[in-house]
C-alpha cells in the first residue's frame, strides 16, 4: 500500500522500558509516554495538542488510548502506548527535532 502512495496518519509508539518487575517496567513506560507528549506540547504548542480526536486539519494530536477509554475496557486490556495523529499541515522537521531530543533524554 505504501508503494501506491498510501501513508497512515495515526501511529502508535510502544516506548522502551526498564525495571526489575512488571510493575516497575509498566510505570516507567507510562512515565515515558507522558514525558514525550509533554515535550511535544511544550516545545510545539501551536501544532501539538493533547486530544483524543483524530480529525485534525493542522499539526498533530497526542493521546494515550488507555486514559481516554470511558470505562468500557478492563484495566488489564488497556493499551498504555503513546499514539499520535498527524496532519499533512505541520512542521515535520521541528517535530522530528523534539522527538530526537526526547530519545536522547532516555
Find the count of extended strands (DSSP E, 2+ residues).
4
Mean pLDDT score, rounded?
80
Give me the secondary-structure category: alpha+beta
Strand content: 15-25%
> Overall 3D geometry?
globular
Rg is 15 Å
Spatial strand arrangement across the major sheet: 1-4-3-2
Order of helices and strands: EHEEHEH
How many structurally independent domains? 1
Percent helix = 25-40%
What do these coordinates show?
This protein is α+β, with helices and mostly antiparallel strands and 106 residues long. The protein has one domain. 38% of the residues lie in helices and 15% in strands. The chain has helices spanning 22-43, 65-68, 92-105, and strands at residues 10-13, 48-50, 60-63, 82-86. The chain has a 4-stranded mixed beta sheet. α1 (22-43) packs antiparallel against α3 (92-105). The radius of gyration is 15 Å and the shape is globular.
What are the key terms here?
106 residues; alpha+beta; four-stranded mixed β-sheet; 3 helices
Give the arrangement of secondary structure elements.
Elements lengths: L9 E4 L8 H22 L4 E3 L9 E4 L1 H4 L13 E5 L5 H14 L1
Parallel strand pairs: 2-3
Antiparallel strand pairs: 1-4, 3-4
Helix pairs in contact: 1-3
In short:
This protein has 106 residues and is α+β, with helices and mostly antiparallel strands. It has helices at residues 22-43, 65-68, 92-105, and strands at residues 10-13, 48-50, 60-63, 82-86.
Amino acid at each position: 500500500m505504501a508503494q501506491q502512495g498510501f501513508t497512515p496518519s495515526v501511529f502508535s509508539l510502544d516506548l522502551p522500558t526498564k525495571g526489575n518487575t512488571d510493575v516497575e517496567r509498566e510505570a516507567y513506560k507510562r512515565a515515558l509516554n507522558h514525558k514525550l507528549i509533554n515535550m511535544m506540547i511544550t516545545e510545539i504548542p501551536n501544532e501539538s495538542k493533547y486530544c483524543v480526536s483524530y480529525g485534525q486539519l493542522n499539526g498533530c494530536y497526542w493521546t494515550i488510548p488507555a486514559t481516554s477509554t470511558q470505562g468500557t475496557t478492563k484495566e488489564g486490556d488497556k493499551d498504555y502506548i503513546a499514539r499520535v495523529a498527524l496532519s499533512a499541515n505541520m512542521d515535520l522537521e521541528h517535530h522530528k527535532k523534539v522527538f530526537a531530543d526526547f530519545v536522547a533524554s532516555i
